[in-house]
Write a structure and sequence with these properties.
The chain has eleven helices and eight strands. By secondary structure, the chain is α+β, with helices and mostly antiparallel strands. It has two domains: 128 residues, Beta Barrel (OB fold (Dihydrolipoamide Acetyltransferase, E2P)), CATH 2.40.50.140; 78 residues, no CATH class. A five-stranded mixed barrel has the order 1-2-3-5-4. A three-stranded antiparallel β-sheet has the order 7-6-8. A hairpin with a 3-residue loop joins strand 2 and strand 3. Helix 3 runs antiparallel to helix 4, helix 3 packs parallel to helix 5 and helix 7 crosses helix 9. It is elongated. The two termini are 31 Å apart. Bound molecules: zinc ion (ZN). Zinc ion binds next to loops.
């Protein structure tokens, strides 16, 4: 049976039977892989408790026929993102990253850039203070990398570009077309979300700028609020369902917390930690 090695991030982890685990990995060289780790709950030696969510690993696995479950043989942990796991807000956000990749990635379709972006965004989530912009940038980059890049450059129907669109009273984003539509072209069309040209340009820029330079781009409050309205809806539309972790973000009144940032410079919303509605749907310790 052929033996392979690749870098991987654990995106799902379920206990299976008495001692095994079923793991979904997003790997650098093979894309999404589902695997069984036999004895993972007993053998500390082979898996070193490394199969929790977010873990970045050097994974060794057997692949019998190039389909179905691979067999995880062992792993070296490269980084386990402990600072994400000790912060509920970061867990919710990180779960959203993992679920989004899980849903968008095809099995065994390598996407090295998406792997690097996920890794970089998890590192950023771990090290930096949490800001809503991080979520929005992640969404935009992943949409692009998995082939759903929003077309923001011109009206998708009449082809007016940004210069000409300045003369038009309003523009929209069409969920169906994944593209900008100007007001005159919008009649009798459904699934439109109002958008300013400034936000359209920012999303376009984030789609095409190198990741290391993206953080220099600034969201205005309007761009932040419009992209918050638009991006999760577009993702749900493309995937045909709402992500569970997105519901968790809404449940904890995430937005209020982000918006409270200015009034609470330390980032503390006194009501947040005790929110009774909070349910972590993807607890890394389970
Ligand atoms: Zn038009």
């Amino acid at each position: 049976m052929p033996l392979f090695t690749t870098n991987a991030i654990v995106t799902r982890s379920l206990n299976y039977g008495e001692s095994d685990k079923i793991i979904t990995f997003f790997t650098k060289d093979f894309g999404k892989l589902k695997g069984i780790a036999k004895g993972a709950r007993r053998s500390r030696k082979r898996f070193q408790n490394a199969l929790g969510l977010f873990s970045h690993l050097r994974l060794v696995f057997f692949d019998k026929e190039g389909l179905g479950l691979v067999r995880a043989e062992g792993c070296d942990i490269l980084h386990s993102f402990p600072k994400i796991k000790e912060d509920l807000k970061k867990i919710v956000c990180g779960n959203y990253y993992l679920e989004l990749v899980n849903e968008m990635a095809g099995e065994r379709e390598a996407n090295q850039e998406a792997f690097e972006v996920l890794l970089s965004c998890l590192s950023n989530l771990e090290e930096a203070n949490l800001q809503e912009e991080q979520l929005r940038i992640f969404e935009i980059r992943m949409l692009s990398l998995f082939g759903y890049r929003p077309n923001m450059k011109r009206c998708n129907l009449c082809k007016r570009d940004w210069e000409d669109l300045k003369e038009i009273p309003a523009v929209f984003f069409s969920l169906e077309r994944g593209a900008l539509i100007c007001e005159p072209c919008s009649k009798m069309r459904n699934n439109l979300i109002p958008l300013s040209l400034g936000t359209a340009r920012l999303i376009e820029k984030i789609s095409q700028t190198e990741l290391c330079k993206v953080e220099r781009l600034r969201f205005t409050p309007q761009a932040l609020s419009e992209s918050r309205e638009l991006l999760p809806k577009f993702i749900s539309y493309q995937l045909g369902k709402e992500l569970k972790s997105l519901k968790a973000i809404k449940d904890i009144e995430w937005r209020f917390r982000f918006e409270a940032r200015a009034e609470h410079p330390a980032g503390i919303n006194p009501n947040f930690e005790t929110s009774a509605n909070f349910q972590n749907t993807n607890d890394p310790n389970k």
